[in-house]
Specification:
It is built from 13 helices and 8 strands. It is an alpha/beta fold. It has a single domain, classed as TIM Barrel, CATH 3.20.20.
Length: about 325
């Protein structure tokens, strides 16, 4: 088993995965303030939105404006989610640094969510790759495999199907692949097993882990993925988001809790946790009607933390 990575990137996906799952429509100026504050706190990868029709997700209708703003911040990797070629063309035009195409390894979830089979999504990725190359664009293509550990509609998702989809995405021209526990079914043993096998297929192209805290296991699952050498994780401030098929459940791993755990383990994240907690307090006012998650904001940083965090930043 490889040692833990010495540094880890937390990709903030609250502006996309978080906001698309809640009722509140956050005004564009507040989203821009969120991006600026997250950047000031040391976050260097932010998924700012999704290029989907505004009538489907009015929460994300200002994505192009957010990409333009975020692109002006030096050293910030700006990513967006796209469901299809049309969305990808908009992402390429906006000069997003990375576009993520979601693929559900669960056929039932894929048809319900994207109205496409997994293999039709793979074919779309091949078209996106061709369009990206034809445009001479530098935008990276990430294939994100969702429901990788099970599905609320279908139940079990065969590991062999998850790995087959991963190989197919790479063959279709994806630059990166990642694995997501969309509905919070994963456990640490399963995570370690799948990520180890995924690493054999994808090598350094295995990009990211995306864990939902539906059943309280997000950070335990992050730890298991860390043990396989994964050094990038999606998270949302205050753990917002979630899955429409699991009402009342917690959403994503909370960015601030994840940043604390990593720093306390001596793993560098580049994040100023006090600043991140200040941003969380702001967001809790903006989203005062929503259910927020996470535990660090309740308990605060422990008195033993400062020495650890200094160690983390010097690592």
């Amino acid at each position: 088993m490889p040692p833990f990575p010495s540094s880890v990137v937390i990709r903030e996906v609250g502006l996309r995965d978080g906001l698309q799952s809640i009722e509140t429509l956050l005004p564009t100026p507040q989203k821009i303030e969120w991006i600026d504050d997250a950047y000031a706190a040391g976050q260097r990868e932010i998924e700012v939105g999704s290029f989907v029709p505004a009538r489907l997700l009015p929460q994300l209708a200002d994505t192009a404006e957010l990409v333009a703003h975020a692109k002006a911040l030096p050293g910030l990797l700006v990513s967006v989610l796209v469901p299809n070629l049309k969305g990808a063309e908009r992402a390429i035009e906006a000069q997003a640094d990375l576009l993520l195409v979601p693929l559900s390894a669960s056929r039932a979830h894929s048809l319900a969510n994207l109205r496409k089979t997994p293999d039709e999504v793979v074919a779309e990725v091949a078209r996106i790759r061709a369009a990206r190359d034809a445009a001479g664009s530098k935008t990276l293509i990430e294939g994100g495999i969702g429901t990788a550990f099970g599905c609320t509609i279908q139940g079990a998702v065969e590991q062999s199907e998850v790995l087959r989809c991963m190989q197919a995405l790479l063959d279709a021209g994806a630059d990166r692949v990642s694995l997501a526990d969309t509905v919070g079914y994963a456990n640490p043993a399963a995570v370690r097993d799948v990520f180890e096998k995924a690493r054999r297929i994808a090598g350094d192209k295995l990009w990211c882990g995306h864990f939902h805290d539906t059943r309280g296991l997000a950070l335990a699952n992050v730890y298991a993925a860390l043990e396989t050498g994964v050094a990038r994780f999606d998270a949302t401030l205050a753990g917002i988001g979630g899955c429409p098929h699991a009402p009342g459940a917690s959403g994503n791993a909370a960015s601030e809790d994840l940043a604390f755990m990593l720093a306390d383990m001596g793993i560098a994240t580049g994040i100023d946790i006090e600043r991140l907690l200040a941003l969380r307090a702001k967001i809790s006012q903006w989203l005062s009607n929503e259910t927020l998650h996470g535990t660090l904001w309740l308990a605060g940083l422990p008195k033993t933390f400062s020495a650890q965090s200094i160690h983390a930043h010097s690592a």
